[in-house]
Amino acid sequence: MQKIFLLLSLLPLILLANDSDEHKEGKKIFDRVCASCHAELMDKKTALKTFKTLKAPPMNEVAMQLKTNIVIKDEDADVHRAVVIAFIKDYIKYPGLMKTMCHPGAVDRFGVMPSQKSVLSEEEINKIATWMYDRYEGVEF
Ligand code: HEC
Question: Does 21-135 carry CATH code 1.10.760?
Fold first, then answer.
């Protein structure tokens, strides 16, 4: 019983430690580079209402779109995460009409995303892509 109590009292610390510096840096990169076009969090109703003023789909919509469209055969969560992150990393550098999983109506409205290759280092691309996956775990649109 005592052991359980100790574990429970340590849990917040463990969880806090998991919100790693890497994630904090990911969020900073989001604010600096991506937030000028992508809203960090927006519900569908607000997105539809403000559609005309948006520059890109909200990031929670993008994350959900990628996570549900990219399906792997053995349903291994770690493999799925790795594949989605790899897609995001590639898309940041080499976006394109042939690759986008964005809703066709949204692409018509926004156009294709400009490459962010020249503004980010490989390390920063890693961090923002990982942040993007983890930030929106369990977040709906
Ligand atoms: C100049 C505006 C702009 C900036 C800055 C921008 N994006 Fe985008 N992004 C878009 C638009 C527009 C789309 C939707 C069209 C498309 O899929 O290319 C998009 C789509 C995406 C997609 C979805 C691709 C898909 O297949 O659905 C990802 C992933 C993405 N952006 C990540 C990022 C990240 C990460 C950053 C910051 C490093 C970023 N974007 C910065 C405009 C932008």
Answer: yes
Q: Which residues of 34-68 are buried (b: 16+ CB within 10 A; e: fewer)?
A: beeebbeebeeeebeeeeeebebbbbbbbbbbbbe
Ligand 1, residues 113, 126, 135: which to mutate, most atoms within 8 A of Cβ?
113
Cα 82–chain centre separation:
13
Report the length, in residues, of the chain: 141
Radius of gyration of the chain (CA): 17
- Sign of the CA dihedral 120, 112, 99, 49? positive
pLDDT grade, residue 61 (50/70/90)? very high
Q: Tell me: the pLDDT tens digits for 86-134?
A: 999 999 999 999 999 998 999 999 999 999 999 999 999 999 999 999 9
Tell how far the Cα of 103 is from the centroid of ligand 1, in angstroms.
Answer: 12
